[in-house]
């Protein structure tokens, strides 16, 4: 019995020793294979540093909140992607869209990520193969459907080439305190709006703050006027040749705008004033009303920019010409970010773009845009969360106006070719300066429209 036990223990010891030896031998061979005769562990593969260029237009005090949101998305992306540095390149919006980006596209070398307008700009660039198709990225992240119709201006032949940063509407910001002191009421027709303008002018104030150095600013007013005189869907027909710029209903709209200029409803010298100047006119009490995009509300919530006017600004939509016709508004999701097609050739950059989209286009960031910057969400956000985010009266007024809207339409520059937009911008400034009549303006724009249509 004892002899058998001793033999079993001996065999067990031998087997254990052999297994240990095999294990040591295997470890040694593995080490020899990885590092030769060197006993040090193999070094981890280093990630090569790389850089993305991000072109943005969030410049100046009025856009500081939007820039802060962008910066946070950039920092989160750099933290997620090893070796990544994102270089921020800030450029004025008009210079970027109409000069710099067009030149870069012509050379086939746009920034990796760039501020863009979906229609018609990105559509043109996409057809030339210059913009990244991000459809699969949005689907992979599970956010494509959350954009709803906001992706329409960014979609070409079913493929998505960019993402809108937010939405907006246009209307009149006004000095509520002045209205209360003078017993004035929010107008419900164009005639009532003109009566307000006459009373304000008689009181020594400027009825409408406006700065027309950049033509898109006064064209907001013009576009809203022709949406009433010609119809909310009239602009859709220009590119198809179904409607004409020099239609009498269009002439009527520009003539109304010109009439307001001639009656002195705007500050003299408006053509020499930059966009920010019109906000200063209402902040310093020179002007009482200002037609602008809803994005401007963040300026009036910031004591550093608006001083004592914080809490004293209200908002109403441009009213129809006739009572009961229904309100018609521009509702836009045409500004955001697109990406160079060359990104697809670099796995590191492609991963970085995916991370950037994930970090910028989240529910948290959309709510921050609404709360901090007054930007309407481009993505679908639960109503209760939007209501929780909106705590100031001005933003509540802006959102509240949507209940009265009957017609919605995109801004004209999302529906016509770039050359047509350029011509209209040039001609509307001539009209403001008294160098052209509405008919002359629209005849010239129609000629460019026909040429642009024929070349497509």
From TrEMBL:
Under Gene3D superfamilies, the record lists:
Periplasmic binding protein-like II
Keywords, in A-Z order: Signal, Transport
Transport recorded as keyword: yes
Xref: InterPro entries: Bact_solute-bd_prot1 (IPR050490), SBP (IPR006059)
Is the Signal keyword given for this protein? Answer: yes
Residue ranges of region Disordered? Answer: 25-48
Query: Which portions of the chain have biased composition (kind: Low complexity)?
Result: 25-39
Q: What residue stretch is flagged as signal peptide?
A: 1-20
Q: Which family does it belong to?
A: Belongs to the bacterial solute-binding protein 1 family.
Kindly provide the name given to this protein in its UniProt entry. Carbohydrate ABC transporter substrate-binding protein, CUT1 family
Tell me which species this is from. Paenibacillus aquistagni
């Amino acid at each position: 019995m004892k002899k058998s036990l001793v033999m079993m223990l001996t065999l067990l010891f031998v087997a254990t020793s052999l297994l240990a030896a095999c294990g040591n031998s295997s470890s040694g061979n593995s080490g020899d294979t990885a590092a030769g005769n060197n006993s040090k562990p193999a070094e981890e593969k280093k990630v090569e540093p790389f850089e993305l260029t991000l072109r943005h237009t969030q410049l100046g005090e009025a856009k500081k909140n939007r820039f802060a949101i962008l910066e946070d998305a950039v920092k989160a992306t750099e933290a997620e992607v090893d070796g990544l540095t994102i270089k921020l390149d800030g450029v004025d919006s008009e210079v970027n869209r109409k000069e710099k980006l067009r030149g870069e596209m012509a050379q086939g070398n746009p920034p990796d990520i760039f501020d863009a307008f979906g229609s018609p700009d990105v559509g043109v660039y996409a057809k030339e193969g210059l913009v990244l198709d991000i459809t699969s990225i949005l689907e992979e992240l599970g956010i494509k459907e959350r954009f709803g119709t906001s992706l329409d201006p960014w979609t070409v032949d079913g493929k998505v080439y960019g993402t809108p940063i937010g939405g907006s509407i246009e209307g009149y910001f006004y000095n509520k305190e002045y209205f209360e002191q003078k017993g004035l009421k929010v107008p419900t027709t164009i005639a009532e709006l003109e009566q307000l303008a006459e009373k304000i002018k008689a009181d020594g104030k400027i009825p409408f703050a406006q700065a027309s150095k950049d033509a898109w600013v006064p064209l907001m007013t013009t576009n809203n006027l022709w949406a009433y005189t010609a119809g909310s869907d009239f602009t859709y027909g220009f590119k198809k040749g179904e409607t004409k710029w020099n239609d009498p209903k269009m002439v009527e709209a520009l003539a109304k705008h010109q009439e307001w200029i001639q009656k002195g409803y705007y500050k003299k010298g408006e053509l020499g004033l930059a966009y920010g100047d019109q906000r200063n006119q209402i902040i310093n009490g020179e002007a009482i009303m200002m037609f602008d995009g809803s994005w401007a509300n963040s300026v009036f919530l910031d004591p550093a920019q608006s001083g004592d006017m914080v809490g004293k600004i209200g908002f109403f939509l441009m009213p129809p010409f006739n009572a009961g016709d229904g309100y018609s508004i521009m509702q836009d999701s045409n500004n955001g970010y697109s990406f160079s097609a060359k990104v697809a050739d670099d796995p590191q950059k492609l991963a970085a773009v995916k991370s950037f989209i994930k970090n910028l286009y989240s529910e948290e960031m959309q709510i921050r845009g609404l709360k901090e910057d007054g930007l309407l969400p481009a993505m679908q956000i639960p109503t209760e969360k939007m209501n929780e985010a909106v705590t100031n009266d001005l933003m509540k007024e802006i959102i509240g106006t949507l209940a009265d809207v009957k017609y919605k339409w995109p801004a004209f520059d999302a529906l016509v070719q770039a050359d047509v937009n350029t011509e209209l911008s040039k001609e509307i400034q001539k009209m403001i300066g008294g160098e052209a009549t509405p008919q002359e303006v629209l005849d010239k724009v129609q000629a460019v429209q026909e040429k642009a249509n024929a070349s497509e």
